[in-house]
Amino acid sequence: MSEQASTPPMRPSEALKVLGAPSRYVQGDGATFLLGQELRQLGHSGTILLVASQVVRQQLEAIWREVLDEEGIALEILTFGGECSQSEIDAGCAAAEASAASVIIGAGGGKCLDTARAIAGHLDLPAVCCPSLASSDAPCSALSAVYTDDGDFDHYIFYKKNPDLVLVDTRVIANAPVRYLIGGLGDAIATWFEARTVVEARSLNQLHGTTTMSGAALARLCYDTLIEDAVDACRSVEVGAVTPALERIVEANTLLSGLGFESGGLAIAHSVHNGLTTARETHDYLHGEKVAFGLLVQLVVEGRPSSEIETVLAFNRSVGLPVSLADLGLTSTARQTLEAVAERAVAESETAHHEPFTVSAQMIYDGILAADAIQRG
Predict the structure, then answer these.
(1) Active-site residue 287, yes or no?
(2) Which single residue of 44, 109, 205, 258 could bond 137 by disulfide (Cβ 3.0 to 4.6 Å)?
(3) What is the reported pLDDT for 334?
(4) Among 187, 229, 327, 372, the one annotated catalytic
(5) Does residue 273 carry a catalytic annotation?
(6) Among residues 164, 273, 354, 372, which one is catalytic?
């Protein structure tokens, strides 16, 4: 029999499915003590520049120096200034070049890790993330959210790959204020709903591809885990205990939400967050707290069933996430302020445009008012 003629491959006519992930994810009680060993296993040596928040440096510097010295790895530490801004990134790049660093590590909250990844990306060096909080899904991603020095959202930076290593010490997270874990829940609860929207719209995820079945499944697992374990995990952190529920929620906030948002995609919820950063009253509130309210706006604008909105509203209340503008410091908000929020939410590059319909500033403005009214019953 003659061989059947094969069809040669053709250039793709549309975006392909893309899933991104860190090379290695390590989580558990006391994981900090494995940092040197994990770096060696990945083949990293030379000098490390570790960008750390002040509080985390005070807590962990002695351990870092001990475990890195055991592996013969030199360490330079740069204290993070508090904002992932261009000036902070530039200062970190200068410190990395001065120390001839071969790897950049971030140790702290989301903005500290975003800064460390930005430094690594600019210098084309490997990035390692050691989150001290489960407050956002930033650690696993190949992007950074950059703000102005005054705290307004400015732009995203995208990188060619995800971090080499994400190492999460759940003992450190259990000892942090519970508000940060709750903030991470706000970021994570939006993951499934935003990914679902992107899939329905056949839009692009944060990796500029379409969503794989794996990406969507991880986003859904994130949601299911939050509904099951969030309240118990918060109780664990309130008493500084590492429990199975906390371990599951840390993984959901960090890994499942991290892969789910990046490989699943973002929509209105995160755009509303970015819009809210233009209101000075919201600057003392966490990323996830603003995303949680943004999700309510998204569900309203999308016209989702009231039962679904009530489920999210009940979840927010159960863990202490915002359900109103007042919960974000916007107690007597002028129309002009909310109009500015709505305009920023639909800027040209915003993920609000991943919806399956055209999104306008008026729609976001109306959605904000309607979402704020829901909680009044």
Answers:
(1) yes
(2) 258
(3) 81
(4) 187
(5) yes
(6) 273
